[in-house]
Write a structure and sequence with these properties.
Layout: H1 2-21, E1 25-29, H2 39-46, E2 60-63, H3 69-79, H4 83-96, E3 103-104, H5 108-117, E4 121-126, E5 135-139
Parallel strand pairs: 2-3, 2-4
Antiparallel strand pairs: 1-4, 1-5
Length: 140
Amino acid sequence: MKSFFKQVLCASLLSFLAGAAQAEIAVIVNPANGDTLTKDDIASLYLAKTKTFPNGKNAIPLDRPEGSPSRVEFVSKVIDKDEAQMKSYWSRLIFTGKGVPPKVVETDAEIKDMVARNLDSIGFIDAAATDATVKVVAKF
């Protein structure tokens, strides 16, 4: 019986530590973008349900490669899906001709640079990587 309780305690502790190790994700836009975005606004942009910011200007979402830690966090916390569900979602949209997935960018530095140079871009990076070249509109 003691062994069972040790296993449960260890599993609980590992679960807690894994959650604590997850990085905070910052959703970023160009500093000149005056929009305020909700979680639903961001999810709609990344699910191609809308193609514009609340101000009506074009929005270009930038994504990270499938399986990258920041993408896994973003998809889970913002889109409320897992990687397999996102892949299935985009497969359906592509197959029916109803959408094109966001452009995949390899690193946080590249996303930050692209957002800093383009008024229409929106991306997500590790919150620790943000600086004055971009505007943080949400953290998850």
